[in-house]
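Inverse folding, one chain.
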């Protein structure tokens, strides 16, 4: 009886492994069965390990959970950006890229062990009810909030449904109760403001499905203003990326011809070039693009293309250096597989993987703590600091001279992160921008260009 059960478990596990590997779509299992008996033997060893754990481990374990963790370990060992996304995480990713979700409308983070409001989103249920930045959310519908993901899931729900939020507020002795009705919350990725007549500022925080439309709307408003647009500052600082097609479309708003991006992968279907098209609106005014160590992936595509085409001057500090392309495949159980399929290259053929975009004018950010003076630029991790990161080219090796962070560096990074999160999600305020040395330097460059343009040779 035991022998039969063992054989059944082994057969079942091998079938599961075969289905999982086939579902990934790499053709790996087909190659194994045809060419690699050694690798097939390793799969049988894997099934033996699962069986031993099921039979002998001190506590009962779920086979499905073990296999999912094994897949996660296998995929994540490839590079930092490949991973198995459980159904919940996959749904969150889809929400982030769609450009809207249903909830109460707040940016939150974990701070000092509490789910803390960074800022309410304007014209949302939370904003209208009077929830404020730094409020601590201790309960949702009477249930304590223990971690960030749980709190997010509790506050999201169908449009029109009620939710009760309990918060602690500094200076108020008793907890405050808020009765809110969930609504559709747009994820605003583009914010704009006029720095001074004729000079605009756009902050692009990420690339969602609505980013290009938001960008075009902001540009039209500035271009049709009383004072003609003489120059634009495009802020890509701390923009972690997003949808590839949106970064291409945003870049295309400022280019009429030439290559924007090329991607090269091992599979021939992942070798592509993307080119600019003639725009219906001619935008000849000068651009200054701001980047820093938090500018990654899609934002680096925009900065790199505009830099190579001499269409924009890049100001700030070296970008993150994520020059790889990921695709997300839906698996049969509702989870997703995010897999790195290619490296991308700027129009001039530069791979920025683990290198980043170097600005034309290097200028540090005054809002950040001076951790940079100790060689830790901006207190931000870069792609080259991540374990298992890809190199700029296949088989290329790079020296990593960064040392491990000490406690002081970690504290500085956390302070910088909090400031940057607040700066990124908060409303655009003229007084904040006026104290931002990178924005003011960009404005000076645009004004200087306008003055020199009118000089006679």
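Residues assigned per position:
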């Amino acid at each position: 009886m035991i022998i039969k059960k063992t054989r059944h478990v082994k057969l079942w596990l091998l079938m599961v492994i075969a289905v999982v590997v086939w579902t990934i779509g790499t053709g790996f299992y087909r190659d194994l069965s045809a060419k690699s008996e050694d690798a097939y033997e390793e799969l049988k060893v894997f099934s033996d390990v699962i069986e031993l754990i099921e039979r002998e481990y001190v506590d009962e374990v779920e086979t499905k959970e073990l296999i999912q963790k094994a897949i996660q370990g296998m995929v994540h060992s490839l590079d930092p950006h490949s991973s198995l996304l459980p159904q919940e995480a996959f749904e969150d990713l889809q929400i982030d890229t769609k450009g809207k979700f249903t909830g109460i409308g707040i940016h939150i983070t974990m701070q000092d062990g509490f789910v803390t409001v960074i800022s309410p989103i304007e014209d949302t249920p939370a904003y209208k009810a009077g929830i404020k930045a730094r409020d601590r959310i201790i309960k949702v519908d009477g249930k304590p909030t223990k971690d960030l993901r749980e709190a997010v899931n509790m506050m999201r729900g169908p449009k029109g449904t009620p939710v009760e939020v309990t918060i602690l507020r500094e200076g108020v002795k008793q907890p405050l109760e808020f009765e809110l009705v969930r609504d559709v919350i747009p994820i605003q990725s583009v914010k704009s403001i006029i720095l001074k007549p004729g000079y605009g500022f756009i902050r692009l925080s990420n690339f969602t499905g609505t980013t290009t439309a938001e960008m075009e709307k902001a540009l039209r408003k500035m271009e049709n203003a009383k004072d003609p647009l003489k120059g634009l500052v495009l802020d890509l600082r701390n923009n972690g990326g997003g949808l590839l097609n949106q970064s291409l479309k945003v870049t295309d708003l400022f280019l009429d011809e030439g290559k924007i991006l090329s991607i090269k992968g091992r599979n021939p279907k992942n070798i592509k070039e993307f080119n600019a098209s003639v725009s219906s609106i001619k935008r000849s005014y000068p651009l200054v693009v701001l980047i820093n160590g938090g500018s990654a992936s899609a934002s680096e595509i925009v900065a790199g293309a505009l830099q190579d085409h001499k269409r924009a001057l890049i100001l700030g500090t070296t970008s993150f250096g994520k020059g790889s392309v990921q695709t997300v495949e839906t698996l049969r159980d509702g989870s997703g597989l995010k897999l790195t399929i290619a490296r991308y290259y700027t129009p001039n053929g530069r791979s920025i993987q683990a290198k980043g975009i170097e600005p034309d004018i290097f200028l540090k950010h005054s809002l950040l703590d001076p951790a940079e003076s100790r060689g830790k630029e901006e207190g931000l991790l870069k792609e080259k600091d991540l374990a298992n990161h890809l190199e700029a080219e296949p088989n290329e090796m790079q020296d990593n001279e960064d040392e491990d962070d000490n406690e002081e560096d970690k504290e500085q990074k956390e302070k910088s992160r909090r400031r940057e999160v607040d700066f990124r999600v908060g409303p655009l305020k003229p007084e904040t921008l006026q104290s931002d040395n990178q924005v003011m330097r960009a404005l000076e460059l645009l004004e200087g260009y306008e003055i020199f343009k009118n000089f006679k040779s």
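The first strand starts at residue 83 and ends at 85. The CA atoms of residues 4 and 259 lie 62 Å apart.
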